[in-house]
Design brief:
homodimer, alpha/beta, 8-stranded mixed beta sheet, globular, 4-stranded mixed beta sheet, Carbamate kinase
């Protein structure tokens, strides 16, 4: 069982609102079609979700009760999701959409309740569930953002995943001289790369922190490394 | 708390594939905008979902593992759902979509597991969840149909609804002379109307059977009766 995150910055042009990076998405879809393990895909928002979330001031802990704002984010993300699904279907992948807005809810402490009955059954029926960054109803906040990274961590635990992959815009965690670190086993290791990569991903240290807490080994790589990851190799940086 | 079903035949032109009955939907949306109680809306498939389900041979107990078939039904239903949401938003209703494909799953006995954390939280945050007939992953079947009526019964129980309303193409359960029966308290009463109404709704007796099993009183009425139902009156037939 593999949980694969396709970074929003990888499959979209992050500088232009709601613009796909179509060649990158095609490469990602080609790689996913070549996977032989059971697979759950999560994609980020890139230039689809983030612009709207910023415009409406919505984040993982600050929400809106305005349905227009909620659906600006959700609608942009489902549009991107439909495109991702279409590219996968073109390649024979039996991908089905799962929208967190329909499933999830946060309580007053921000804890996300995300019942995964549909994901479990889709996998048992040999479908590939495709989730995405989204919004979800949240106590006292209307709706808040549910991030793709949050979904990856939740899915990896729930499914007892064998491997977790984050396909990013950088080839791995970078050290002070922009070289890929092979392995990160503690936050001290991750701190090596933080200064070099913060500009690119915004939150590599945060991603590493989350990944270190998982039981499954997690791999951070770029599009060049994705095919290798999906056939069991270890491109980029392994976090475990 | 009210659970309202808008029949697919009411809001679509059932004889023409994927064709809206726009004036009827506008009237329904006007009525929903006038409701003061907490509300969950479920809409049927009408000419959106049913044509595709029939073409792919998909029903509540017979499925397909072809993702094209699954998404033909699901995609048509989410298209209809977006239109329903838009009409509600135009009238200031804070409606949010809930897709059963993302949430639900049937086991080998056909029993639907449908965790409702998102619906509960949406209601607590003063949104109006809008569900619809859909498909859901099903053990051994790929995906099968989840009917709007099934969702209504599930929601009424889960939410301990005060009232359930089925907005139909007929003004209520009809007797042998096409007169609306005021009250149905047993299947014997329902049998009165079955012969007269079967042609119109296809399954009035089945609907009545399901409604009799609910704790909440259920009302069957047409578009003319919808505004009255939503302000607490008792148009059409009450089933309890």
């Amino acid at each position: 069982m593999i949980v694969l995150k396709l970074g929003g910055s990888v499959i979209t042009d992050k500088d232009r609102p709601e613009t796909l990076d179509a060649p990158a998405l095609d490469r990602a879809a080609d790689a996913v079609a070549g996977a032989s393990d059971d697979l759950v895909v999560v994609h980020g928002g890139g230039s689809f979700g983030h612009h709207h979330a910023a415009a409406w001031g919505v984040s993982v802990d600050s929400g809106t009760d305005d349905v227009e704002g909620a659906l600006a984010v959700h609608g942009a993300m489902t549009t991107l999701n439909r495109v991702v699904l279409a590219r996968l279907h073109d390649r024979g992948v039996s991908a089905l959409p799962v929208h967190s807005l329909s499933v999830g809810a946060r309580n007053t402490d921000g804890v996300l309740d995300l019942p995964l009955a549909a994901v479990d059954r889709m996998l048992a029926e040999s479908f590939v569930p495709v989730l995405h960054g989204d919004v979800a109803a949240t106590a006292g906040e209307g709706v808040t953002v549910v991030s793709g990274d949050e979904l990856v961590a939740r899915l990896a635990r729930h499914l007892d995943a064998d491997r977790v992959g984050l396909c990013s815009t950088v080839p791995g965690v970078l050290d002070g001289e922009n070289r890929v670190v092979d392995r990160v086993s503690s936050l001290d290791d991750a701190a090596l790369g933080e200064s070099a990569s913060t500009d690119v991903t915004g939150g590599m240290a945060g991603k590493v922190r989350t990944l270190l807490e998982l039981d499954a080994p997690a791999h951070i790589f770029d599009l060049d490394g994705l095919p290798a990851f999906l056939v069991g190799e270890t491109p980029g940086t392994v976090v475990d």
